[in-house]
C-alpha cells in the first residue's frame, strides 16, 4: 500500500486524538499532530505514533478553538508536498475543516468512513441518509477530511517512540471571537462510540418517565444509554450526544440492545458496526428484525421490567 509523505491530524477532543494519529500512521510516512494543551501532551502524542508535533501552546480560556485554523493553515501552507489533513467529526472539527478549505483552497469531505490514498486521495462517506455510499476524489494539493469515529483502532501506547516538536506562535485571525465566560453544559458527557455495551431507546419508550427504567436496565448490564433521533431532537428527552444514526454517533459495541426502535436505515447505519444486535419491538414486521441477531416481539414497557427482574434474580 502506498502512503502519502505527510498526514496532519488535529482533534478538539483529546479522546479522539489516538485514533486520528493511528489513521495518520496507516496512511502516511510522517504523522504531524497539532496539539493545544499541556506540554506533557507532546510526549503522549509521540507514544501514540505521532512523528512530529506542532505545539500551539497552552489552552487559552479566552480563545475559541476555531480561531486556531489560521495558525494551522499557515503551518500547512509552508509544506511543499501534497498532504492530507484529518480532523475529528465534531462541530468544531467541521468548522475548522471548512475554514481550512477556504484558506488553503482545499477540497473538504465530512464524515468519511473509508480513505484510499492509492493514486490520489479518495474518501467514502454515506449519502442519501445512509441509503448509499459516495466516493469522492479530492484533487487539491491539500485534502481535508473529517473522519468518522471507529474507522481506525488506536495504536497501543509505546513509551519508546519519539519525535520532533515545533513551537508555533498563535496567529490572530482578522476577525476573532473573544470568549468572556465558559459554563458547564447541563447533562453528562458521553462518548457512545467507545462504549462496549449500548442500549438504544426509540419512540416505543412511550414517555420520558420510562427512560428511568431503561437507565436501570443499562446500569445492570454495564451499558451506556443512547437513542434514536426523535428522542433527542424532537422530544428532547436525551442529549444529542446520545443520538445514534447517520448524522449522530456511529457505534462499535460488543452488544447493542435496541428498545422500541423501528430500525429505519438512518438509524441502523449508526448501529451496524455492533458485534451483536438484540431488538425488542411490538411490531413483528419492524425493519429492526432484519438486522437483529436476536429479537423479541413485545411491548418494551413490559419486556424491560421482566429483564430487570431476571437480571436482579
Characterization of this structure:
With 313 residues, the chain is an alpha/beta fold. Helices cover 26% and strands 26% of the residues. It is built from nine helices and 14 strands. It has helices at residues 17-27, 40-48, 69-77, 91-103, 211-221, 229-234, 265-268, 288-291, 300-312; strands at 4-10, 28-35, 52-55, 83-87, 107-116, 121-127, 132-138, 142-147, 164-167, 197-201, 224-227, 255-259, 276-281, 294-297. The strands form two sheets. It has a nine-stranded mixed sheet. A five-stranded parallel sheet has the order 11-10-12-13-14. Helix 3 packs across helix 4 and helix 5 (211-221) runs parallel beside helix 9. The longest helix is centred in the N-terminal third of the chain and has 13 residues, at 91-103. The termini are far apart. The model has no long low-confidence stretch (mean pLDDT 93).
What is the CA-atom radius of gyration, in angstroms? 21 Å
By DSSP (H or I, 4+ residues per run), the number of helices equals 9
Stretches where pLDDT is under 50 for at least 5 consecutive residues are none
Q: Which bin fits the share of residues in helices? A: 25-40%
Proportion of residues in extended strands? 25-35%
The largest sheet has its strands arranged as 7-6-5-8-4-1-2-3-9
Helices and strands, in order, run as EHEHEHEHEEEEEEHEHEHEHEH
General shape: elongated
How many β strands by DSSP?
14
Largest sheet: 9 strands, mixed
Structural class from helices and strands? alpha/beta
Determine the N-to-C terminus distance: 53 Å
Mean pLDDT: 93
Amino acid at each position: 500500500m502506498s502512503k502519502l509523505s505527510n498526514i496532519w491530524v488535529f482533534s478538539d477532543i483529546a479522546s479522539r486524538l489516538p485514533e486520528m494519529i493511528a489513521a495518520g500512521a496507516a496512511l502516511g510516512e510522517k504523522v504531524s499532530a497539532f496539539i493545544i494543551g499541556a506540554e506533557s501532551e507532546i510526549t503522549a502524542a509521540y507514544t501514540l505514533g505521532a512523528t512530529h508535533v506542532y505545539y500551539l501552546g497552552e489552552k487559552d480560556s479566552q480563545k475559541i478553538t476555531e480561531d486556531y485554523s489560521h495558525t494551522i493553515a499557515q503551518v500547512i501552507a509552508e509544506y511543499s508536498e501534497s498532504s492530507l489533513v484529518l480532523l475529528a467529526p465534531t462541530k468544531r472539527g467541521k468548522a475548522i475543516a471548512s475554514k481550512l478549505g477556504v484558506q488553503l483552497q482545499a477540497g473538504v469531505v465530512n464524515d468519511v468512513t473509508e480513505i484510499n490514498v492509492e493514486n490520489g486521495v479518495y474518501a467514502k462517506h454515506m449519502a442519501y441518509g445512509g441509503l448509499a455510499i459516495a466516493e469522492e476524489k479530492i484533487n487539491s494539493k491539500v485534502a481535508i477530511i473529517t473522519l468518522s469515529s471507529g474507522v481506525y483502532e488506536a495504536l497501543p501506547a509505546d513509551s519508546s517512540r519519539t519525535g520532533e516538536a515545533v513551537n508555533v506562535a498563535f496567529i490572530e485571525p482578522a476577525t476573532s471571537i473573544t470568549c468572556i465566560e465558559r459554563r458547564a453544559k447541563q447533562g453528562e458527557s458521553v462518548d457512545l462510540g467507545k462504549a462496549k455495551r449500548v442500549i438504544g431507546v426509540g419512540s416505543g419508550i412511550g414517555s420520558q418517565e420510562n427512560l428511568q427504567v431503561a437507565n436501570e436496565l443499562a446500569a445492570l448490564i454495564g451499558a451506556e444509554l443512547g437513542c434514536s433521533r426523535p428522542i433527542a431532537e424532537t422530544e428532547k428527552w436525551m442529549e444529542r450526544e446520545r443520538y445514534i444514526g447517520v448524522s449522530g454517533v456511529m457505534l462499535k459495541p460488543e452488544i447493542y440492545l435496541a428498545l422500541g426502535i423501528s430500525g429505519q436505515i438512518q438509524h441502523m447505519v449508526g448501529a451496524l458496526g455492533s458485534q451483536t444486535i438484540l431488538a425488542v419491538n411490538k411490531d413483528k414486521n419492524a425493519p429492526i428484525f432484519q438486522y437483529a441477531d436476536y429479537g423479541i416481539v413485545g411491548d418494551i414497557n413490559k419486556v424491560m421490567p421482566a429483564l430487570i427482574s431476571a437480571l436482579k434474580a
